[in-house]
Structure formats: C-alpha cells, structure tokens
Amino acid sequence: MDLIALAVPFFLLAIVIELVVNRVRGSGYFRANDAINSLSAGMLSTTTGYFTKLLPLIAWGFVLQNFALIDMPLSWFDASPRGIALWVTAALAWDFCYYWFHRFSHEISVLWAAHAVHHQSEDYNLTTALRQTSTGFIFGWIFYLPIFLAGFPLEVIVAVNAVNLIYQFWVHTQTVRRLGVLDYIFVTPSNHRVHHAQNERYIDKNYGGMLILWDRMFGTFQDELEEDPVVFGVRKPLANWNPFWANLQVYDYLLFDARHTKRWRDKIGVWFRRTGWRPADVEAEFPKARADLDHFRKFDARPGPGLQAYVMAQFLVSLVLALFISAWFAESGLEAVLVPCLLLWAQLWTIGLLNEGRGYAVRAELVRLLLLVPVGAALQPGAEWPVVIGYVALSLAWLGYIIIYSKQLVKEHT
Ligand SMILES: [Zn+2]
Ligand SMILES: [Zn+2]
C-alpha cells in the first residue's frame, strides 16, 4: 500500500480549499504561473521516482540483511504497548535522520543542488510542499542507513517515511499563522516559513521534518519575527518556469566553477564544501552579485496573449495524466509507465515555455501535439490512441484559434 499515492487526492483537495480561501480573502498567496511550476516539479519528481526509488530500497535491504545489529521481526510492530513503542521509536529515528539529511542538504553544495528545487518558489502555499527534487535519490538514502543498521524492518520504515512526508505537506501555508505551544514542539507553518526564507537571519534554520525540537537541540532554531517578514525563495533565483532546469540549475553552477578553477583540490571541493563556497580564482574571475532583498521582485513571467486558459487546461490534462500514470504503475509496474512518462515530461516542458511567454513556445507546443500520436503509437502500439487523437485535435483547434485571435488582438491595439 503506497500511503503517499493515497494521500495525493487529499493534497489536491487541500490545495483547492486553500486557493478558494485565499481568493475570498484576496491575500495574494497564489500565482498561477508559480503554482503550475511547483506542481510540475512535483509531477516530475513523482514520475522520475518510479525509475529511481529502487536504489535506496536495494541499499537499505542489503544493509538490513547483512549488517543489522538487532533482528526485529515485523510481528513485533503490532498494536501492543511494545509494538506502539517500537513504531514511535522508528518514527523518531527517521525524523532524527531526516533532520541531519535536511541540514546537510542545505550546508553541502552537491546536496543543495538536489534540494534547492524545493526552495525556488517565491510564493509559499500548499503547492510549494509538492515542489520536490528529482535527483534526491542519489545521496538521500545514505543518511538513513543507521536505522537499518539498528535493524528496523524495511516495511516499517517505508510507512514511517510516508507519514513523515505527508505530515510535512500542511506546514507549507501562510493561511495558518501562529499555533502557540505547538510551534515549540512540532514543525508548524510558522517555523517552516522561516526555513523557506532568504532573509539573512532566517537562512539555514529550522530543518526539522515533524519535530522542531531537533533544531532547538542542535542550535538551528529561529522563530518567525513580526519585524522581519519572510521573503520566500533562494538567493540565486530560478527565474524561469522550466521544471527540468529547476532540477539542474545548481548542478550547472557547480559544474561551471569546477571547470573554471585551476586546482584539482578545488575542482572536487566545489561539490563537497559548504554551500556558497567558491574557489578563489573563479570568484575573482566570475564574481556573483549579492542578492539585494530590499529591492527583491518575484519572477513573474506569464503566458503570451490569449494563452492563459490554454496553459491552465493543458496543465490540468498533465495532472490527470500523472494520476493515471500513478495508477498504471501500481497496477502493472515500470514498463507500463515509460511511454506515458515521456509524453508527460514533453508536456511539462512546453507548459513551462508557454508559461514564460517565450516566442518559440507556441511552435514547440505545435511540434509536441503533432508528434504525440505518431511517436507515442510507434513506441507503444495498441494503447488508447483514439482518446489521445481527440485531445490533440481539440488542442490544435484551440491553439489555432488563439493564434488567429491574438494576432487580431495585437493589431487592434496598434
Ligand atoms: Zn530545505
Ligand atoms: Zn518545505
């Protein structure tokens, strides 16, 4: 049973409720372009995850089988007082390892490259929670090895991980302000807002997953202060709506520095030293301007004339496709989802381009629509192609209408 997949409909419902509340209050916490980008990164993370999540499971299973200190059979984890105590211990152990994993994800460059995706949104709402990395699988599993060395069963830890992740969803909101004593013990919206801030005082604070107590214990806690309102986002903004680039941007910065520095020690240091560290020669030759928060402006590119509704409709189609892919994966495994994933990724890419209002976005979208059926059918014959042909025909008709209509619109204004 995949708890996270089960939670997805509730996540989406909560997002709709938060969206409606914010519209009614006019609080401006949601922008369509940013929310679409966050959810696109989430869909990318989930679907690439089908291909990568075996790696940690194999590594953990191997450690468990060969090096576990205590043999803990699954039957110990029942509803008895001992079983409950074991479940709580497992949850605490996971949360403790999560704290360190998350802390290193901010403090070490190559880990930050993977984690930065989660922090790029300059808004903060429930869609930000689903904005997850696609490359976290590379190093993430290492931090949880002590739990398997101790001997906790894989099934228990998979469940505990899911609960931890699901818990972290609701704290990504500005709609809930302060929660009194809960802010002291648990990770709550207030102290997680601090974590997503780029204000000097808030940087590298509040790493906890479920308990904020870890931060209080290890000196990384910072309270949210009225006099210092949170500015969300990262110091080197993503400044586009491409979910693929969101996953690659920081690696690209690091690669640039590694290529341009002269010393071999620095070529390696670029990846494994403290986030923000740059070799002296590269720093001197290619200095980077410091972020100026007093004049901070959110990145806010929007779709071209007449395209807003089209982008939103395509985004909803991608969301439905992602939900179908999740069901197909649960039913038939990896092979069944490869082609649908490729089609989804192509769609997420053009949605990003359209959202940025790029000149060539409509052409890229036309190419995608025209190639979708021939390429898809060649790769996976016998699928539900008549349905897809209907979708392509409708999309082409709509796009054609926009091209003609928006040209007239531009002419009328000139
Ligand atoms: Zn973080
Ligand atoms: Zn977060």
What does this entry show, briefly?
The protein is built from 18 helices and no strands.
Please provide a written account of the structure:
The protein is mainly alpha-helical and 414 residues long. 64% of the residues lie in helices and 0% in strands. 32% of the residues are buried. Bound molecules: zinc ion (ZN) (2 copies).
Largest sheet: none
Total beta strands = 0
Number of domains: 3
Low-confidence stretches: none
Coarse structural class: mainly alpha
Q: Considering DSSP H and I runs of 4 or more, what fraction of the residues is helical?
A: 55-70%
Strand portion, in percent? under 5%
Shape: globular
Count the helices. How many?
A: 18
Topology:
Blueprint: H1 3-25, H2 32-52, H3 54-67, H4 81-107, H5 109-115, H6 126-129, H7 145-150, H8 154-169, H9 181-185, H10 189-195, H11 213-218, H12 243-260, H13 264-272, H14 280-285, H15 308-332, H16 334-355, H17 361-379, H18 385-413
Helix pairs in contact: 1-8, 2-12, 2-15, 2-16, 4-5, 4-8, 5-12, 12-13, 15-16, 16-17, 17-18
The structure holds zinc ion (2 copies).
One zinc ion binds at residues 118, 172, 192, 196.
